[in-house]
Amino acid sequence: MKRIRLNDIDRAEALRSLYERPLCPAEIEKNVSVIVDRVRNEGDAAICEFLKKFDGVEFSPSDFLVTEAEFAEAEAQIDAEAVRAIKMALENITVFAEACKPQDHLFSPRPGVVLGEKFSPMERVGCYIPGGTAPLVSTVCHTVAIAKAAGVKEIVAATPPMRNGKVNPATLYALKAAGATEVWKMGGAYAVAAMAYGTATVKKVEKIVGPGNAYVAAAKKLVYGSCAIDMVAGPSEIMIIADKETCPEFAAADMLSQAEHGSGLEQAVIVSDSPEMLDKIQAEVERQALSLPRIETFRKVMNNGMFFIECTDMKEACVIANGFAAEHLEVMTAKPKEQLKYLNAAGAIFLGKWTPEPAGDFTAGPSHVLPTAGTAKFFHGITAGDFMRRSSILEYTEEALMKEVSAIEKFASMEGLDAHGRSASIRRDLNRKS
After folding, report:
1. Which of 129, 258, 285, 405 could serve as 238's disulfide partner, Cβ 3.0–4.6 Å?
2. Catalytic residue among 327, 330, 357, 409
3. Which one of 29, 266, 284, 328 is the catalytic residue?
4. 2-23+234-380 shares its CATH topology with 43-229
5. pTM across the whole model
């Protein structure tokens, strides 16, 4: 765990390094490019090879797609409590997605002109569902259910199979309940490439969404342009703004919640104007970590990815938070809404001590697919609108166009686009002759 103190000589440089954390290591992107190119050029044959190499299963193309029998088998294996949890999450996420769904609209900003927007759902999207160190059942709810709320007809999911060639039962049940129309047993960079380019067996999609490891992130970056993507996201991260009223037990638990994702590259950062509180939270992190399994995973993050930052006051804490632009930002202060006014770069903001980050991961409503590595400055978590096409609507009357013809002509003249100018002026000139 690393402490950044107010009087550190290299404090500014330490903060800058924290803000500029890497997203996709160049070496990983280089390796992934080979995988992506092979899938693009060799299709199903490359997928079969990578399934064996990375997931330990021997499939023919006919084995890629999850069957109805497999869905039924998964439903029979899942317990009632898991069903209730999945249904709760799906309901909450759907309510939020539908409330935020963009609506068609028209308005008249000036006489004779009608402008607006039309939103249409995409036809076919791909949702990547991680299943490596842990099956992310919740990611199903936070991707597939939102696509369904947006009105997407074909919702494709790709998730790596287990060593027995099957998909985790809870993941499979959630996929069916959320509205996935196809589920492909494949993972990692090769699954992203399959959805982006298509193969003889897998039909290409228009957009790929969902989290993943650095290999998945690199693959999404490489296929962008062949299809749309939601964002390029790296390892999970959390920042907490704390004051002297913060509960150290809660803050420590929340920091550790992001350290267990398994890559060892996760980050947990806390900033406070109370050095004493930072001491308490650091001690509590050490204490709680000892009670958790997979201590080596936690220890790697604790040694390299946990930062305790001293600040002068809450306004500086907000400045630091905006510079870091966290995936998850908890404001665990006495008056969190006072800080909210100054916060403008975070994937999701959690207010108060009763709003832990895992509520957002699982049941709250907004998608947990969020930007990382500072990209919250220009990316956002996925919403229903991300599964929709937006078209501008424009309609002029004759009188309205005549008022703007001269300006259109002038712009065309300045840009050397004579045909553009004529497109407007011909309407004026023919109108005068008649």
Report:
1. 258
2. 327
3. 328
4. yes
5. 0.93
